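Hi there,

I know you've been waiting on this one. I reran it after we fixed the sequence typo, so this is the corrected version. Both the input and the resulting structure follow.
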Amino acid sequence: MRINASIQDSTAVIHLTGRLDSSTYCSLREGCDELLHLPDISILEVDVHDVEHINSSAIGMLLLIHELAQKNGKQLHISNLRGLVLRVFELANLHRHFTIVSGNVG
């Protein structure tokens, strides 16, 4: 998986490409943790448009990042759900836990 980050105003966007699973845990967690500690950031957006695969480990990781965001007074948004990733979010009712933007479910 590739991870690219950008910042625009008070939003940090992490664009993910490839497979989102347990093998990507450390790099994603470190990237998100770093961005969540920036004082000018109020929203962390995880863009999953180019994610081909997501498993239960990745869902747990996103839930943990959501908790970290809340503890830091930030919001976590998941954007650009499509294909298999959208289906997993729908089946697991994850729209109840995350703010979904651009490709909304529920």
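Quick highlight: The first strand starts at residue 2 and ends at 8.

Best,
R. S.
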